[in-house]
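Whether sequence alone determines local backbone shape is best considered at the level of individual chains. The sequence in question and its structure tokens are set out directly beneath this paragraph.

***
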Amino acid sequence: MVVLSKEYGYVVLTGFASMVMIGHLAIKVGKARKKYNVQYPQMYGDESENGNIFNCIQRAHQNTLEVYPAFLFCLAVGGLHCPRLVSGLGVVWIISREVYAHGYSTGDPKKRMRGAFGNIALLGMMLTTASFGRHLLGWTGPRMGPFSRHS
């Protein structure tokens, strides 16, 4: 049996918050589908003005789903090593996806970039996860300069 630190609870709650965010974006797509009359199984709207707004709402959700597996992997695995750090970065990523979707849903794709700060949070999660793998393997990395070992 694996024993997790008490702080891993932050990771669990961050994962739950991410599911709420994904659900929220899905609901926005459903409402937009109804409002702009985009029937299933169509992925994109055809009309120029309304179709563009629907497409932007749908793309914000789809783009989030495209990166979601990497987010969950880094949250779960990196969270074993540094649960508070990874959870904090995860919350920043979740907030950024909401900001991203809000900007994108205006119909002006350039406004989605307001949520780009989440990419830095995800990068931090990725580096923490990679560091955990390095730690598990006992890799210390090259020693250079004043920190090098002298034989």
Summary: The chain has a mean pLDDT of 91. The chain is about 70% helix and 0% strand. The CA atoms of residues 81 and 106 lie 39 Å apart.
